């Protein structure tokens, strides 16, 4: 195909506004996927994604389309993940496109992710085509939402397409707009090869399969290529396009989107955002914008059963082949035994990894509460990055502690502004801006410590606004604060996995609430179990779990056999998620107690 008849585009939307449904519809209408092979939401092919209705990983699809002008076009759809945790991946997939469909639910309007993604798209100079989806809904207000898009984003909506992805309305109009409005790639076939990696995954037979867009030059099967950020070299065994299943080809040219396999061992060797070029005729400069995805949130992962430690290590190794952003190191905890300290892009990333470990690898894990990375300067002037609260140097060795801050942007109906401001104040937020957008819709901007956002901020925001508010955040740097380490002692022993770093002004309240919560969560034992919270050697809160009354057990020994069996079964089930800390059995929920204090 000549470059003039290629169109590369993506779909940007807030979660649930209909991106996957529209993508499916485009594949179907262009005959790329026949109706009978159509599973709902073809592009979201991880189970987890389908269950949660989110798009985690980007994928691509090539469609052949005969336009109204009678010409054959190749339309490459590059799917983008919708969540903040993956905004770097969004940015890389946008860099591979010339245009974007901006899908907004006509019954909802602009949301935080619409906004964040649209700004990214504008930064990449993409042609943006507004699409108002779900016009079949009785509550759809396309005119109101159009003016919202115009006012908030400053995008002309006079040509906005009214669509229903569900009912197939407006699909041809969308395809024609892509052909006419999205510019073709520039013709740089004569230049040295440069291709942008926007996704990759691990395949146990072929090694890493890389998805890329050829920006300049030509790439052929058999070529030796060099990955410019990692310096790795390899030979292309297989090359092709995604239509949407992999179809092999001999070569791809500037402007085209495809996949390759080259016996690359781990996704870390061919990272998203990296550029590859030819070993023989290399480009001098990589494509701009490459950064390594940095983990922002850390937690400890421990097998409930110590025998599962080797299995956990093997599972993490495997996941890591497929997820360059996943970070882990062995960790030994005096309370928990052997496990791993893992780093994630954000909370959703953390949940996804935990869930995959348990589901796909059959592991029973205890996870500790998420922590951010603190920057500590010692009195000797050394700078340490602390991702595990129990490793915080004692106060006499510290000069200062800094913590990461984020700028949080929330979009909410006006009536919830008060409750959201209260939430942000409780979380040590600094108010920066409020804007009344259109009738009844407001953006609220705060700067907050990331540590306060990773602990259930999102859930709180949703429940306080009955699900109507949406949010995005962006890291803005480190700030110094008076932070202290809060230790939790169970039965007299400090439990390192429960240690946390909190602001001094909040330490007493958090300590007290933690002790109370743990008392609630830890089951009774044959003996009394004292629980204490302490800063240094100073105990600031204490509670006691009373001993189990003997007659509870006595009754069941004397009672009928089936009831006894039931009780034992129940205990066994409960035990699955228990970790013995010294002589005390502590359930999984206790390690997450800090997330449920308010
Ligand atoms: P995504 O999160 O943006 O990928 O959204 P999905 O495509 O998964 O759609 C979210 C929900 O909206 C699903 O239940 C869809 O069936 C529904 N949906 C998508 N498009 C339409 C539409 O045009 N009309 C209606 N009524 N529902 C739609
Ligand atoms: Mg989706």
UniProtKB/TrEMBL annotation:
Its EC number is 3.6.5.n1. It comes from the Bacteria. It is an enzyme of class 3 (hydrolase). Required for accurate and efficient protein synthesis under certain stress conditions. May act as a fidelity factor of the translation reaction, by catalyzing a one-codon backward translocation of tRNAs on improperly translocated ribosomes. Back-translocation proceeds from a post-translocation (POST) complex to a pre-translocation (PRE) complex, thus giving elongation factor G a second chance to translocate the tRNAs correctly. Binds to ribosomes in a GTP-dependent manner. GO terms for molecular function: GTP binding; GTPase activity; ribosome binding. Residues 4-186 form the Tr-type G domain. This is elongation factor 4. InterPro entries: EF-4, EFG_III/V, EFG_V-like, EFTu-like_2, G_TR_CS, GUFP, LepA_C_sf, LepA_CTD. GO terms for biological process: positive regulation of translation; translation. Keywords: Cell inner membrane, Cell membrane, GTP-binding, Hydrolase, Membrane, Nucleotide-binding, Protein biosynthesis. Belongs to the GTP-binding elongation factor family. LepA subfamily. Belongs to the TRAFAC class translation factor GTPase superfamily. Classic translation factor GTPase family. LepA subfamily. It catalyses: GTP + H2O = GDP + phosphate + H(+). It comes from Crinalium epipsammum PCC 9333.
């Amino acid at each position: 195909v000549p470059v003039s008849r290629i169109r590369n585009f993506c779909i940007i939307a807030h979660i649930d506004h209909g991106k996957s449904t529209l993508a499916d519809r485009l594949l179907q209408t262009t005959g790329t996927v026949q109706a009978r092979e159509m599973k709902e939401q073809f592009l979201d092919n991880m189970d987890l994604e389908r269950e949660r209705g989110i798009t985690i990983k980007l994928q691509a699809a090539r469609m052949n389309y005969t336009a109204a002008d009678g010409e054959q076009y190749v339309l490459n759809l590059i799917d983008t993940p919708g969540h903040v945790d993956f905004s770097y991946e969004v940015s890389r997939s946008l860099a591979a496109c010339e245009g974007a469909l901006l899908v907004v639910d006509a019954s909802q309007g602009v949301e935080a992710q619409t906004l964040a993604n649209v700004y990214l798209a504008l930064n990449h100079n993409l042609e943006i085509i507004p699409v108002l989806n779900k016009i079949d809904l009785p509550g759809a207000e396309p005119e109101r939402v159009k003016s919202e898009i115009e006012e908030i984003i400053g995008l002309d909506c006079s040509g906005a397409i009214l669509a229903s992805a569900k009912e197939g309305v407006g699909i041809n109009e969308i395809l024609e707009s892509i052909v006419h409005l999205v510019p073709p790639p520039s013709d740089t076939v004569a230049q040295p090869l440069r291709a942008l990696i926007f996704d990759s995954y691990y395949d146990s037979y072929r090694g890493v399969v890389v998805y890329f867009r050829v920006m300049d030059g030509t790439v052929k099967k058999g070529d030796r290529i060099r990955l410019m950020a990692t310096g790795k070299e390899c030979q292309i065994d297989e090359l092709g396009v995604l239509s949407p299943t992999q179809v092999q080809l001999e070569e791809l040219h500037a402007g085209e989107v495809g996949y390759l396999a080259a016996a690359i061992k781990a996704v870390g060797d061919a990272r998203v955002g990296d550029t590859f070029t030819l070993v023989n005729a290399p480009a001098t400069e990589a494509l701009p914008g490459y950064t390594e995805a940095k983990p922002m949130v850390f937690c400890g992962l421990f097998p409930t059963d110590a025998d599962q430690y080797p299995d956990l290590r093997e599972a993490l190794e495997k996941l890591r082949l497929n997820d360059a952003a996943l970070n882990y190191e062995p960790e030994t905890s005096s309370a928990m035994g052997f496990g791993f300290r893992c780093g994630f892009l954000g909370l959703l990333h953390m949940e996804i990894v935990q869930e995959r470990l348990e589901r796909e690898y059959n592991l029973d894990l205890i996870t500790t509460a998420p922590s951010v990375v603190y920057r500590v300067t010692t009195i000797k002037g050394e700078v340490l990055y602390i991702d595990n609260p129990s490793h915080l140097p004692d106060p006499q060795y510290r000069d200062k502690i800094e913590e990461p801050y984020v700028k949080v942007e929330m979009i909410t109906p006006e009536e919830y502004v008060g409750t959201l401001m209260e939430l942000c104040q409780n979380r040590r937020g600094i108010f920066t801006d409020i804007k009344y957008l259109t009738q009844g819709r407001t953006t609220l901007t705060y700067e907050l410590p990331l540590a306060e956002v990773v602990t259930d901020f999102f859930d709180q925001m949703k429940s306080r606004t009955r699900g109507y508010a949406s949010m995005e955040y962006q890291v803005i740097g480190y700030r110094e604060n008076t932070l202290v380490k809060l230790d939790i002692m169970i039965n007299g022993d400090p439990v390192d996995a429960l240690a946390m770093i909190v602001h001094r002004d909040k330490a007493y309240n958090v300590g007290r609430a933690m002790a109370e919560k743990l008392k609630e969560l830890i089951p009774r034992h044959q003996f009394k179990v004292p629980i204490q919270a302490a800063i240094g050697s100073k105990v600031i809160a204490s509670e006691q779990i009373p001993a189990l009354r003997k007659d509870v057990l006595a009754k069941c020994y004397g009672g009928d056999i089936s009831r006894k069996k039931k009780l034992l079964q129940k205990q066994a089930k409960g035990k699955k998620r228990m970790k013995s800390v010294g002589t005390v059995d502590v359930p999984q929920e206790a390690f997450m107690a800090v997330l449920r204090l308010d």
